[in-house]
Amino acid sequence: MTTDTPMVAEVDCSTGIQTERPMTAEEIKNWEAVKAESAKLQAEQEAAAQAKADAKLAAQAKLQALGLTGEEIAAITE
Amino acid sequence: MAMTLIQRIDVTSSASANYTFSSIPQTYTDLLLVTCAQGAGSNSDGNFVWINGISTATYSGNMLRRTINAGNDGGFAGSSSYIVPLCYSAGQTSFPSFAGNGWCYFPNYTNTNINRGYNSIAGISPNVSTTNAQMIIHGVGNTTTAAITSILYSGYALNLASGTTLSLYGIS
Asked: What does the DSSP 8-state code read for residue B116?
């Protein structure tokens, strides 16, 4: 066991005894897959949110150019 | 209704990211996992639960999230392995005085006629203007019909910090 191996602490609910073991190779593989996918999805969500925010700002600027006041813009966009 | 503490894990060192309740008694109607967790690092995004040692891509999830800056607000569908049911961000470094709190409810966990499903509510609000103050409602399903005999709670990319508590209750 190396210090880099992710550990799992396990509590047996029938005895209350806690033990610790290294993750199995399959667990590590799937854990890494979850982390990679999570990071990818989070990046996608953040990019989508940023694109939406950018589009909203652009739309608000266009409405302002049409002569709407800030209060009027807020009334129809928020 | 009666609520019985089955086991409580008090994390006393920051040596592990993953904690498992095993040999869960089959004598209750529902299970409730209550977490008060910090990650031993800057952020602890995406803490998740695996049941019965199932770590394969057999899960599905849907999440409704509200963040303090509204930048990441909205509903999100998780993929088959993207499980984020509990306390999204509670990194000890970024938020030394705050933990991410969450409840995860496992109804009818011994009924082998239906797929396993569970729901969670989680939140953290360190009162700072970052995306890490947020509230999440999450629904998760797995294709197994087996009764839940073990629950693994993972700190995702970070070990869980000392002071974290995980409490498993039986509801009857």
From this structure: -
